[in-house]
Write a structure and sequence with these properties.
188 residues; alpha+beta; Jelly Rolls; five-stranded antiparallel β-sheet; 1 helix
Length: 188
């Protein structure tokens, strides 16, 4: 065996070993990349689901929050077989709302096919009542802002008794369902 034969023999051994190494490293590289892609897809899916199911933020574009009346979601479960309306009411305990300018809250309904409206009503200590209707409550959370000046029949905002959210039989396409209200707050 001469030098040339030895050189060719060593070159074949080296090239065969390096091609096996490159095949193994290619397999490892591909499986590592696939693992990262799957992990990224799972993470992005979980993030999208978390954003879909979470209630709206309390600090929003509607202005500075002055007073939070309800931080968690309340459920208005209506069934109009014996009843004609369902109410979720908050006792304001003769709270003065004179320094506030708007009411903000979030609404959503549980049945996508139901066309439902909600009556938002303030009652004062002098038995003055004034309401505003939110028509076509959406299937996903939607923030609403109502200026207190839209509640026309309230002349004195100093001694307020209740704030209520009402689903009435004549304002719902279906006889039963659920409406959720969340993040009820008063804004300055």
């Amino acid at each position: 065996m001469d030098k040339k034969d030895i050189y060719n023999h060593l070159a074949r051994i080296y090239l065969d070993a390096s091609s096996e190494t490159s095949k193994n490293s290619r397999k490892k590289f591909l499986s590592a990349n696939i693992l990262w892609v799957v992990a990224a897809a799972v993470f992005l899916s979980a993030l999208a689901l978390a954003n879909y199911f979470k209630p709206p933020k309390v600090n929003d574009a509607y202005g500075r929050i002055a007073l939070v009346l309800l931080d968690g979601a309340a459920k208005i479960n209506f069934n109009f077989n014996p009843a004609k309306k369902e109410i979720y009411a908050i006792d304001l305990n003769r709270l003065s709302l004179k320094r506030f300018s708007a009411l903000a809250f979030a609404l959503k309904k549980s049945n996508i096919r139901n066309n439902v409206s909600v009556r938002v009503e303030f009652t004062s200590a002098f038995r003055e009542t004034s309401e505003v209707y939110i028509k076509n409550v959406p299937y996903r959370w939607h923030d609403y802002r109502i200026e207190l000046s839209e509640f026309k029949n309230i002349s004195n905002w100093r001694d307020m008794r209740t704030l209520s959210f009402t689903v009435e039989e004549w304002n719902s396409k279906e006889n039963n369902g659920v409406v959720y209200v969340d993040n009820i707050r008063l804004l300055r």
